[in-house]
Structures are given as structure tokens and as C-alpha cells.
Amino acid sequence: MKYSSLAKSLAFSVAGVVMALGATSMARAETPSWCGPKQATLALLDGYGGNSWRQVTAGSGAQTASLCPSITKYEYVDGQGDTQKSISDIKATAAKGIDALVVFGDAGPAVLPAITSVFKSGKVIVPYRVTVGGKENENYSKFVGTTFVDNGVFWGEWIKKNFPDGANMLFLSGPAGNSQGLDELEGLKRVLGPEYKFLNPEPFAVTNWDPALTQKVLTAEIAKDQKIDVIISDFGPSLVGALPLFNKQGKSIPALATSDGNSLGCLWHELKDTNPDFKLFTVATGTDNVRLAVQWAVALATDGKAPDTNIFTAPIFEDSVTGQPNAVQCRKELPGAIYLSSELPAEDQAKAIGQ
Amino acid sequence: MNATSMTPDALPRQGLLPMPLARSFVTVVLSTIALLVVCRIFAPSSLSWGAFSGSLPFAAIIAIVGLGQLLVVQQGGFDLSLPGAVSLAVVIATHHPQQNDALLFQAVLVALAFALAAGFLNGILVSFFKLNAIIATIGTNALLYGAVFAVSGGVPSITTNLLGEIAGGETLRLPNSVLFALGALALVTFILKKTVVGRRFEAIGANPLAGRAAGLRVRTHQMMAYVYAQLLYCTAGILIAGITREPTAFQGDSLLLPSVAVVVLGGTSLLGGRGFPVSTVIAAFFLNQLSQFALAVGVPFSAQTIIQALALGFGIGVYSLRWTVNVRKTTGTKTVEENK
Q1: What is the per-residue pLDDT across A44-56, written as a single tens digit (0 to 9) for each?
Q2: How far apart are CA A152 and CA A158, in angstroms?
């Protein structure tokens, strides 16, 4: 018993070192700078918790909160994709006496009134990743965003490097008009000139991030018998079932610029030898976005030192061409639905998604 | 209306063919041919072999769930538990084996057991407790989704290689899933049209009161419609698990509407009665080809949606038009104007 708790705290402090990443001294690794002396309780409110990405995110949030001893209680609430429930979750959690709330506002501005009322009642509330409208210090304590435009820029730069004379590209994103896809497109266009041609209808091919629809969309595009040099997708794992379609139609899988996922990495290792054009480049899928949001909430609630930034940038994760910063990763023995880019250790992710 | 839709069989047979072709069959075939011609002109790529081999598996899935929905609709019911049923089969087929081929057979059995349970639940609620079919099956759907979350936690899992080969592979250049759909079609058609059970099933759908008067076990047949339907949904779910390598836990959601659409396009009355399995399967091909066409013409998503809606409306419109003409012919009734 004693040994296991020792091992646990050891594991946490090791994780803390990784978190602080070369920033500071050993003393800080035990209690991060964003963790102040004032005791507080914290809740993470998800608008929708039913996929592995969210579960890994929830695990990352819990792990980040556990680094701060001033946080006496941590709760996770799942809105189950129901806007009404998300709104009442936010109010109910505050009413229960939780001091700091981190909110993934899937429903967008619809949850702003609830967020505002909680903020006005003197709680710390930090919406993150999805824009909910409103203003800092008026509607909420701090908004922790992410820059999808940067993802587009990273992809664009990689494409430019690997296809210097221009390329035919297919850009797949989620539901029609989703702002993530539009931001990414802006980033791509910032880097790529007119010699880089989009084969998909403007602004992106709609896939709803559904593997079955992705497969149908890709089938239609491959059948047009046009040369596809690069596929760009903001959810790599949804392509895992669809990519072998190229082989079925007697073609090599083209280069792919996307976000990471264990199943995708493993697919690359499986198919790279038979598909000479299959290069893979990924940005981290952003499950660590929640860490920055939790750090902000904890810092504000416990009087700790606020982090330097409120914008999370997903770093480049894999590049099969240069192997920098990482070669393509695959952990075959672990579930496909985990994200090796996440700071949460792969084994803990497997536990978080219940496998 | 149900009685009249049964009459063509009862009337003396006329015409060149030994058996008159069902008007719904003619309609759906003509619509499909028209669509193929339009595809040939505006989106030839959607007719290539590559496009077919990629998209036919999805047509097969729609066909199989359509056949299930057909059986329920024939009894004047509606099965809204389809999304949960398909999703549950998907997650059992992927989560239970966890990529271990040896456990696949077991997973299929477990999935079938759940399908039977859900089918009997639906059937008993609707036929014995006389609950409204829509309400009862929505409730069952919620229960099934509960099971989906219990099994998967909402997380996708990768399919086993064996299932990938069985469902996603090809035999004689034809996707295996298409063979499964044709098998399901043959089975449903044979039982419905050539066995005593099937004939009774259809007769009860057309008129339950007459069925009861004739001494048929109306409630049992009505209940079994939901059970057969669940077994077909389960088959479809297991196939989806194989076709998409990493299916989500909500793969059934997008199938509910197409399942009803193909039943209607296939010419089966939503009030029950005679069923048209062959037309339903052709309608599934039509619907799938329609979405491939919309994708292949390369227009914006909004236009794709409009094209699909218009073509679907056209398909159903053509069918309704022929239906009125045909009823007049077969029953010999005349309109007021003609009597003058």
C-alpha cells in the first residue's frame, strides 16, 4: 500500500517534470507555479463526452488538476451532447459550491448566459477550445483558445516542402461550415499559392468526421481518376478505413497531412511498403488543450501564477519523411483510439477509454 | 387501400409476361435507369468499377436494414430502434473481440442474442401490449444505446482482420457485403412469397382483422416482424463493422432515414400489406447511387443536399403518379369525369 502510493506520487512528479518541460527547478516540479496556496474545488464540464478524444481529454484534465495539492476536489460532468443539460450542468455545478469551472462549450454561444451568470456569482469559469462569444472579465474569467489556423499553416508548409512544384489536394473536414475546417483552410491558403489546387468543392469535402461517410466521399473522388497528391484531413483516424480504397482501385495511397491517432500510425506502418507515395505528417490532435485551461482555472482559483499564454498551439507530432520531431508512432498492443501525441501516458489513456 | 394493393394477384392474369410485374418494381427500375443515364452524362466517374466497388457495400447495408424495416412496415408498424440496434451490433462485433479473430464468432453470437432480445421486446410491446410502434421502438432504441455505451463507452474500436476480410473483401470481384445483401433478399423473398408462414404474414399485414377472423395468430406474426427486423439490423451492423475499419459507436444513426426511404421508394404502403423486397433492394441501390452522383458531380455540399432531396422527391413522385393510374386500370373504377 505504502509502496503503491509512493509510486503514484513518483509518477505524478515525473509527469510534472514533463509538464514544466525545462522551464524551472525541481521544487516547482512538485508544486507547479500555477498552483497557488488557496484551497479550491474544480470541475471539468464537457458538452459531449462520448468519444475517445473526449475521454482522453477528461483524463488529461484530471491528471493536471491532481498536480496541484490545493485542489481538494475534482469533478467531471458530461453534457451528453445536450445543450439543455450542458446549461443546467454549468449552473448546478456552481450551485453545488465548486469554486472553479472549466467548460468545453460545444453548444457555442448558447451556453454563454449560463457561463455569465456563474461568473457574476463570483466563481472562476474558463471556457476553452470552442468560442462561446462574450468578453473576458465580463462574461467569464478567461477564454483558453486554440489556433486551428496554425494547423493549416503547418500542413501547408509540409506540403510545400514535399511538393515544391504544386500539388492536387483533397481537404476533408467535419460537418458543413464547421469553424475548425474554415480556420484550417485559411492557414493552408496563407502558405500555399495557386499552383496548389483543391480538388474538393469549396471550402472542404464534408465528412462529418464519420468513417463511413469519409469512405463514400473518398470513393467518389478516387473514381474521378484525377491525380490526388495530398489528402489533408483534420481528423486522421477517420481515414483509417478509407485509405485502403486507393489500393482497391489499383493506386498508391497519396501523402497525408492530418492529426495523429494510434490507429493511423499503425496503418502507415502496415501499408508504407506497398504504397510508395504514402507519406504521413501529423499535428498533435490537441487533447492537451485542456491542460492549459485547467492551469488557468487553478491559477485564478488558488491565487497561483497565471500561465504565459491563453492560446494552445498543437505542435507538429510526426513526419514520416524527416522523422522530426518524431517518426510515425504505433503502439500495436494498445487500443487504436488513443493519441500518442497526448501528454497523458498511453497506458493511462487506454484506461481512460476503458480498454 | 391495403386490400386494393393485394388485388393484382387475385385478378386473372393478363399481358405478355406470365406474371404481371409489380408497378413498384417497374417504377423503381425506371427511376434507377434514369438515374444511371443522368450519371453517365454528368458524372461518368460514378459509374466506374472503382466507384462501384467502394460504394456498393454501403448500398448493401441500406438494402439489408431496408428489408428489416420492410417487414415491420408490412405489419403497419415502424421500427425506430434501428439506429441503436445497428450501433450495438457494430460495437459488440468490434469491442468484444478486441482484434482477436478467435473471439469473432462468439461476438457474432452475442450480437445475435441481443438482437433477439430487442426484437422480442419490441414485438411484445407492440403486438401484445398494443403500444404505439413508434413510441415502443423509440424506448427500445434508448435501451439499446444504453447497451452501446455500456459495451463501448462511446469509443470506437478497430475491427478484427477476419471480419474485415469477410465483410470488406470481394468474391469474383463482387464485394462480399453485396452477396450478403442478395442472400438476405433471397431469404426474405422466398419466405414471404413462397411459404405458408410468409403468405400468412403478408395477409395479416394487409388486414389484421380479416387475419384474425380466418383464425391466424395475428399477434405472433406481428411480434415476429420485429424479431426478423432486428436480426437483419444485426447483420447490417456486423457488416458495417467489417467494412469501415474503425467504426464509431453511432454508426446506425445515419441509417434510419434511408431505411424508411427505400421501403417507400420500393412501393410498400406505410399502412402495411404487401411487401416488395426486390424493389426495396433496388431502391437501396438507387439511393446509394444518388449520393455517389451528388458527390461525384463536385458541387458544393449545399447543392449536393438539394440534388439528393429533389431526386428522392422525383422518385417518390413518379411512383405516386403511376399508382393512381394503375389502380384505375386494375379495379376498373372510373372517375366522375369519365362517367359523364
Answers
A1: 999 887 778 888 9
A2: 10
Q: Where are the alpha helices (DSSP H) in A21-104?
A: 26-30, 52-66, 83-95
Task: Report how far residue B98's alpha carbon sits from residue A354's, in angstroms, rounded to the nearest whole number.
Answer: 12
Asked if A263 is an interface residue toward chain B (Cβ–Cβ < 8 A), one would say yes
pLDDT category of residue B114 using cuts at 50, 70 and 90: very high
Contacts of A335 (CB under 8 A, 6+ apart): A52, A262, A350, A353, A355, B155, B157, B158
The three three-digit cell numbers of residue A111, written as one number: 451556453
Pick from A51, A214, A219 the residue to mutate for testing the B interface (most B CBs within 10 Å).
A219
CB within 8 Å: B54 and A223? yes
- Nearest CB to B154; choose among A50, A241, A250: A50
Chain A residues with CB inside 8 Å of B296's CB? 220, 223-224
Chain B CB contacts of A176 under 8 Å are 301-302
Instruction: Give the pLDDT confidence score for residue A301 in this predicted structure.
Output: 94
Given an 8 Å threshold on Cβ–Cβ distance, is B50 in contact with A223?
yes
Contact A132, A101 (CB under 8 A): no
Among A55, A78, A182, A216, the strongest candidate for a mutation testing the B interface, having the largest count of B CBs within 10 A, is A216
> pTM for this one?
0.80
Flag whether residue A269 sits within 8 Å of chain B, measured between CB atoms. Answer: no
Residue A133 CA, distance from chain mean position: 20
What distance in Å separates the CA atoms of residue A294 and residue A349, rounded to the nearest whole number?
18
Closest residue in B to A199 (Cα–Cα): B298
Residues 6 or more apart from B340 whose CB is under 8 A from it? none
Instruction: Examine the pLDDT at B111 and tell me if it is beyond 90.
Output: yes
**Nearest by Cα to A130 from A113, A106, A101:** A106
ipTM: 0.78
Rounded distance between C-alpha atoms, residue B189 and residue B9, angstroms: 16
Residues of B in contact with A222 (CB under 8 A): 50-51, 54
Encode burial over A199-230: b for 16+ CB neighbours within 10 A, e otherwise: bbbebbbbbbbbbbbbbbbbbbbbbbeeebbb
A49, A202, A220 ranked by CB distance to B51: nearest: A220
Helix (H, G, I), strand (E, B) or coil at A338: coil
Sign, CA torsion B106/B108/B110/B112: negative
Q: Which residue of A has its CA nearest to B98?
A: A335
Q: How far is Cα B131 from Cα A340, in angstroms, rounded to an integer? A: 49
Those residues with Cβ within 8 angstroms of residue B336's Cβ, 6 or more apart along the chain or in another chain? none
Strands A311-312 and B170-171, sheet pairing: unpaired
Q: Indicate the average pLDDT of chain B.
A: 85
Cite the beta strand spans of chain A per DSSP E: 40-46, 71-78, 100-104, 124-127, 145-146, 167-173, 196-198, 205-206, 230-233, 255-259, 280-283, 311-312, 316-319
Residue A15: pLDDT band by 50, 70, 90 thresholds?
Answer: low
**CB half-sphere exposure, A268, CA atoms < 13 A:** 28
Would you call A239 helix, strand, or coil by DSSP? helix
Pick from B50, B243, B248: CB nearest A222: B50
Distance CA A331, CA B267 (A): 51
To the nearest whole Å, the CA of A171 is away from the closest chain B CA by 13
3-state SS, A168-179, equals EEEEEECCCCCH
CB-nearest to A55 from B98, B155, B240 is: B155
A97 contact B CB<8A: no
Of B54, B155, B299, the CB nearest to A52: B155
